[in-house]
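ugh ok fine here u go
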Amino acid sequence: MISLGKALRIQRGDVVAFVGGGGKTTSMFRLAAELSDAGMRVISTTTTHITKEQVRIAPAAVKLEEMDLLGSVLDRHGHCLLVGPPDGKGRVFGASSELISSLIARSDIDAVLVEADGSRSLPFKAPAGHEPVVPEATTILVPIAGINAIGQTLEEAHVHRAELAAGLAQQPLGSDITPQTLARVLPHPEGGAKQRPAGARLVPMLNKADTDAALQQAREAAKMMLANPAVDSVIICSMLQDPPVHEVWTCTDTPMTG
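structure:
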């Protein structure tokens, strides 16, 4: 197993946007911790909203009106979460696309990580017309799905915006979710790849591959996704394990493993 930063091939100047379901917040904070431990100065934020409980996961948080504190906070912690005002529902807003572009242009910030979508804590989703909110400066777009969605039915109890997902997957609403379902939706230009900026690498991530059976299902989905020329690579992971990445699939026949 390997680190998430190595799997994503993170370099200075990258803006990583996480979309989909099944582990966006966990992945963002996990990557931020890895990068800051390696000496990089990292900002995390959201273009939608994040819960106040999730804000507490970050080693430090800076409000938009306290931007002058960013440098000193990064000096102390290496990573800080940038948050906006409360939304009145126990969550806070984050940064605009324009602000994210200005952040990554700063010489004292090495990478910006963004949660750019919501999923009602479900493992799989398709975006509505107003979703996701991918920053223009994004260099790596990471659509996520939880492997635990496989075997569930394509309905709202298990999938956020199930009807849209069914349409993208070309299967009936209420049918079983399969590896092919994930493989069709995650790289779809109206699915996980929606709003991908020109030049941004598309790296779907299959999370929660916690068992041998789940790992095999993820491999099936990864192989199918790599048939799409838009896909740079596919990460198979268990984000709660250490290190989190099982395999990285590319267009070669052999996956990269730790």
